[in-house]
């Protein structure tokens, strides 16, 4: 089932265009990488604050710039990732690391939803809930990046 | 106390990450994952995805379907190789080196011959 869907995806005009292009694929690839850099750079700083570093800096003051930067990075990565997937969808669909990456992204997104469900989280100073959110966030995004990078080496 | 735990955790994470790196050495990027002996494979094309991020031709041989890896798009372009020149069903012979893992049906290609036409992907290695 997944194999058939991947074969169809790989044969689409979009996938063929991306494979044959001299500049489009590298551009999409670069945008994906830029998205990851923005996401992880911003979220790692926020996660370390959630874990208890820099307690003198109010969480609200850090979250104001870091959350939108991380969000923009996540948006870029999510918009370009599926495009990269199309070019060799059959091989990627057979790669267990792809599913490890999706699982890690899923955990990261659920963690975001759980934290942001309480609007007051930014006003808190510290606590086990914030620490847990920071730890899960760091682990999930690092896991997603590591699994994603290793797809090419499997 | 917490920063102590944190730094230990970070050290562990860094160690875990570097432990993954040797896997990269045995991959299809570069030639280190492939043997030094010359190798050739003959069969028929099952399908091909050429261009980005690297070309792969699925070749049905006597012992099953092989991944015939072609290297980066720039090499394929220089060789004049495009997807429509490698249609399913075409007779193909690939010259190059096979993957170091004998259980893996994968080779990296220096010259691809499709229906009698020769494409030199890595002319400087031939």
From TrEMBL, chain A:
Name by which UniProt lists this protein: DUF2214 domain-containing protein
Keywords: Membrane, Transmembrane, Transmembrane helix
Segments passing through the bilayer: 30-54, 66-85, 97-115, 135-153
Keyword Transmembrane: yes
Organism encoding this protein: Methylobacterium isbiliense
UniProtKB/TrEMBL annotation, chain B:
Position of the signal peptide: 1-25
UniProt keywords, alphabetically: Signal
Pfam families: DUF6152
Protein name stated in the entry: DUF5666 domain-containing protein
Organism: Methylobacterium isbiliense
Organism classification: Bacteria, Pseudomonadati, Pseudomonadota, Alphaproteobacteria, Hyphomicrobiales
């Amino acid at each position: 089932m997944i194999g058939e869907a991947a074969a169809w995806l790989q044969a689409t005009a979009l996938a063929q265009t991306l494979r044959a292009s001299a500049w489009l694929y590298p551009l999409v690839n670069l945008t994906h990488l830029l998205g990851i850099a923005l996401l992880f750079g911003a979220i790692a700083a926020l996660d370390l604050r959630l874990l208890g570093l820099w307690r003198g800096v109010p969480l609200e003051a850090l979250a104001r710039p870091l959350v939108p930067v991380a969000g923009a990075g996540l948006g870029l990565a999510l918009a370009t990732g599926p495009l990269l997937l199309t070019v060799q969808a059959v091989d990627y669909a057979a790669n267990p690391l792809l599913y490890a990456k999706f699982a890690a992204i899923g955990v990261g997104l659920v963690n975001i939803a759980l934290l942001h469900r309480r609007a007051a989280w930014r006003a808190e100073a510290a606590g086990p809930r914030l620490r847990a959110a920071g730890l899960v966030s760091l682990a999930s995004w690092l896991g997603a990046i590591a699994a994603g990078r290793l797809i090419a080496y499997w | 106390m917490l920063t102590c735990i944190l730094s230990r955790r970070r050290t562990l994470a860094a160690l875990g990450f570097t432990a993954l790196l040797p896997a990269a050495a045995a991959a299809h990027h570069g030639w280190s994952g492939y043997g030094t002996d010359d190798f050739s494979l003959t069969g028929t094309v099952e399908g091909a995805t050429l261009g980005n991020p690297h070309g792969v031709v699925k070749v049905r041989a006597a012992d099953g379907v092989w991944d015939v890896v072609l290297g980066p798009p720039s090499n394929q372009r220089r060789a004049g190789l495009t997807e429509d020149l490698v249609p399913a069903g075409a007779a193909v012979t690939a010259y190059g080196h096979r993957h170091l893992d004998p259980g893996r049906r994968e080779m990296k290609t220096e010259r691809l011959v499709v229906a009698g036409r020769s494409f030199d992907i890595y002319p400087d290695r031939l």
